[in-house]
Amino acid sequence: MRIPTRALFCENSTDSVTGPFAQYRIANVHAAFQARGFRVVVLTGTDDVRANFIPAARNNLTVYLGGIGHGAYTLYTGHGGNHILEVGQYDPAEVAGKSIHFLSCQTGAQLGPDTVAKGARSYAGYTENLILVWDDANTPNVNEFRLFAQADSTWDLQMCAGATAQQAFDATVQAFNAAAAQVPNTAAATYLIWDRDHLRLSGDPAARILPYRLVRVRVPFESPVLEEAVAAVGEPVE
User: Fold this and answer.
1) The domain that contains 225 carries what CATH number?
2) CB-based contacts of 41: which residues, under 8 Å, 6+ apart?
């Protein structure tokens, strides 16, 4: 039988810088994962803290970790700077077997490789500060913020659709290139290229995620109670 797998998103929606990205991701990235069949688990607001992250990440059905938050070379943070994931301060079971992408500064340098060393299948992140330009009133036909948000979320959407980590990385680089081409000779173009050049992929280039896990169920059941429970939720087939 097929059991839905889970995508866990830690979206810092309470910070003035990360909040707009969180709302963009909730509306666009989360919706895509739900449409594909993943069970989406979201930590936002004051719930975006490590105490809530730990059990959700350790769940053996969780295959993807994502989100927007502040970061440092060894650290990804949530609400109020809470340490969601930090080198040397987490159980490998929180990342083992998962593909990960955090939209944050610097985590691609040390935290990303550390998660791979602890068993993560792949990690995509930025090795230095992610720099962006907010929507510029002088270019009314272009929303610069959306260019950055769309380019970065290309990674999530590609993984959601079944691409390999390498394919997702390549598509994200192309998305940054396309975004920069829309605003030539501007600060936005400069920083889009900066962000592109500091995006790193760690782990297995062939890593993929699926919205389900196949589980072999043996019948007859030893437990009449379990037998009745499965029959109750199943569809009779003659």
Assistant:
1) 3.40.50
2) 6, 7, 8, 9, 56, 62
